[in-house]
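Annotated sample (chain length 151).
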Amino acid sequence: MRVCLGGTFNRFHKGHRLLIDTALKKAGTKGFVFIGISNGSLISDKPKIESFEHRRDQVISFLQSKKQTLPTVVIEAIETVEGPTLTMDFDVIVVSKETKQVAKQINEKRKQKGLSLMQIVVIPLVLAEDDKKISSTRIIQNEIDREGHVL
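Output written by the structure step:
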């Protein structure tokens, strides 16, 4: 199974871990996972973004903490929401509830190019202790920590 996902991965948190864990499970140990980390124009309007290297290293560190055998994983910077999905063959795209529409638009573009449609796997929003979503913005604003504990 060839699986892709993308994100900013700023202030790496519990929601990011669920996104990656879901992709790893879908791919299986013999599969392939592409993790696109937003960069360039995709992040130019976002405040307080950690460096690409730091965000990539956080993803790598999380993957290295896994105790099970992992599929082949490729991590690259992406500068469009589509990343390599319009040029590479993927079976599955893993997204959050908030980005499901983007995945549908990518599938529409794939269809126009004669590529097969990807199965869209949607993870639920991960909630903090206060039942509001965990987000990098809330972490930056010191409302919550990376595990969703209210500060």
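Annotation: The chain has a mean pLDDT of 96.
Annotation: The domain at 2-126 is CATH 3.40.50.620 (Rossmann fold).
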